[in-house]
Amino acid sequence: MAYTSNLLQEMADMWSASPESLLNLHLFIAIFIFSIFIAYTLVPKPKNLNLPAGPKPLPIIGNVHQMLNQRPIQVMHKWHQDYGTMVSFRYGQQLAISVGSFDIAQDLLAKRGAIYSSRPEFIIASGMTSGFNSAIMPYSRRWQNQHRIMSSVLDSSAVNRYRGLEDMESKQTLVELLSTDDFEASIRRYAGSIVMTLGYGIRLEGTDNEIPAKLLEINAHPFDAIGNSYYRVMELFPILDKLPGFLAPWKQFAADVERQTTEFHMKHFEIGKAASTWNWAQNALHSNAGSRISSKELAYVIGTLQQAGFEAILTVLRLIIKAIVLHPHCLAEAQRELDRVVGPDRLPSFEDIPHLPYINAMLNEAMRWQPPTPFGIPHATTEDDEYMGYHIPSGTVIIPNIWVMSFNPEIFPDPDEFKPERWIQNPELEHSPFGFGRRICPGRHLGWNSIFILMARLMWAYNITHAYKDGKRIEIDPWAIKLTFTAATVPFMASFQVRSPKKQEIIERDWENVCKDPAQILEQIRPKEEVWG
Ligand code: HEM
Ligand SMILES: *[C@@H]1O[C@H](CO)[C@@H](O)[C@H](O)[C@H]1NC(C)=O
Questions:
Q1: What cofactor does this chain's UniProt record say it requires (predicted)?
Q2: Model's pTM, two decimal places?
């Protein structure tokens, strides 16, 4: 007893010390749970179903102990090496199957989408977002309704209208890098300004705007809650949620995150509503699907797009810039392609994209080399199923293990290496950084376009190399990745040298001439009444 109360005191101290102690706190909670429940080893064993092979689970906690304090990426990769393409394991009593093959993931999640499109319960992350974040919602009428609103502003025809905005924002990024190497601030502004302008007509004019930092902050906690095994442990034992607040500090914490997130989304939603120009908030309000739900929920529909879109675009841009700095010959190859297709007299445009296969391959390879969402977002089944002789019960969590798929040496030889050529040599190669089936990323067209145009222009304009300090090269660790449920390259330094005085002139001239007024740009985007009703 003294042991437990000491432990609890220690937990409380750590909690008040700093949010960074969260991890340690959760380790203690995990040990705490473990010591309580170890007494209960007499629980019924899960029925002996014909499941894919996998590591032996312990009673009560399943395989969770094997994930704590280790990188789940490595643990799961090893499991796949030991047990095959499909691996069963358990979070407590919850059955999960990790799928390490693109074809099997397509078979299940896409072809059998009718029963593979739900999500596991993310109690804490869902609490942090008022239960209104569509990305972690079960397949339901609410999801369908929200999905309809999102699709109407993110399908490929809608996204083609956003080129004017991406054109202007990428020109600003080019001009910013003439006078600074702080590309991190520039790509944050770029990603943030695109989604905030489309969402609410709020353009981020300078890199000093606080919105990108705020978006990162409200994302960090639910991302952690989805990806971090310690949190998932708490979700396994709903009884923990019944503990009084002082023993369950995460409850207060989740409530604080929820309050901040709601405030953030509602504030911007009101601005978008009041704006005189078209934007996603207004489009949602005037849609049929939007008229059926509360304004708080609507604010979350658009807010979720901000949260997901901003961080995804930022993360992938940072990843590609890292790949470029570490692989100068790839930059040289891309520049040869740009010099040939575009020439020295103008910036690359959207019309050039189909004629830039090498840059296309670089983008694909970056997302293959270090998948931004290594486990996608887990799906869940809603009915029993049979596949390749296996029985897959209703309620099974299905993890599309994008990381394992990406590192399959039979499909991607030398998988650790960044080799854009593989996509050129074999045009049949497939991967799916945007997920699968009905839950596939609805923002993939917007993400792809806004990343492609900026990267093509950056490589056209700049040599991008290692940064130097006091004559010494600042090294970059290729595998410095912050892992939550996303795998995000840790910010690093690089140097941007404009490739010629003439290019500098074009960058300055184009920026001078482009229309920077978000209201005018959004007016161009506003659809004809009959198109989006
Ligand atoms: C640019 C790179 C991006 C990557 C690599 C990416 C990746 C993903 C992945 C893997 C999923 C899960 C799919 C599944 O469940 O099978 C997803 C879902 C989602 N993404 Fe993206 N995404 C990107 C950009 C965006 C953008 C720009 C937006 C919004 C503007 C966005 C909004 C969403 C939403 C709302 C979902 C949830 C879908 C659902 O659960 O129904 N994403 N994304
Ligand atoms: C850019 O890189 C190329 C190839 O490495 C080099 O020849 C050229 O001098 C560099 N230009 C500038 C402005 O640094």
A1: heme
A2: 0.91
